[in-house]
Amino acid sequence: MTDEPPSPAGRPGSAREIDIIHENAAWQAALPEVDRLVRETVLVGLQHLEEDLEVCVVLGDDPLLQDLNRNFRDKDRATNVLSFPSDDLLPDGLRLLGDVVLSYETCAREAHEQDKSLADHTRHLTLHGVLHLLGYDHEAAEDAEEMEGLEVELLAGLGIANPYADGVLRTAGKDEP
């Protein structure tokens, strides 16, 4: 894998639409290149798919993620990332893969606690969310190993060190107890 992300069209003959919705200005203030990082990361996650896809990434905050987590998962607390898979066919012929929603406060806090850059942590959690849209999960140990291995491989292509190397993120995307 090269250091260059795939072209915006992904594989030849496929189209990619990546919508980024800013629900919290802190993302742009802390990470001015956040849109580029998110787009590149989503494309890396989708690079092996040949169909025309659309993904929406919402750059939110703890109150938004807590509300979503409570309403859709019965967990009344904020979390770092949530994914909402879809399989809708859109009028333009793209298939809506789903939505990935990130919380600025939780991502920034975790990056600081784990001595990682906000950019790298944001890329990791964006990719983590995209993989959930593709059907990967980490509920069972075997599934977690597969998903984490793929994350490590794809993140390495972006020049990002293994986020699981020190065991800190063994529950990426999971709620804390």
Automatic annotation (TrEMBL):
The organism's place on the tree of life at top rank: Bacteria
What keyword terms does UniProt attach to this protein? Cytoplasm, Endonuclease, Hydrolase, Metal-binding, Nuclease, Ribosome biogenesis, rRNA processing, Zinc
InterPro entries of this UniProt entry? MetalPrtase_cat_dom_sf_prd, YbeY, YbeY_CS
Q: How is the cofactor bound?
A: Binds 1 zinc ion.
Q: Where in the cell is it found?
A: Cytoplasm
Catalytic class of the enzyme: hydrolase
Q: Please give one Pfam family short name.
A: YbeY
- Give a short account of what the protein does: Single strand-specific metallo-endoribonuclease involved in late-stage 70S ribosome quality control and in maturation of the 3' terminus of the 16S rRNA.
> Any idea what this protein is called?
Endoribonuclease YbeY
Species assigned in the record: Fodinicurvata halophila
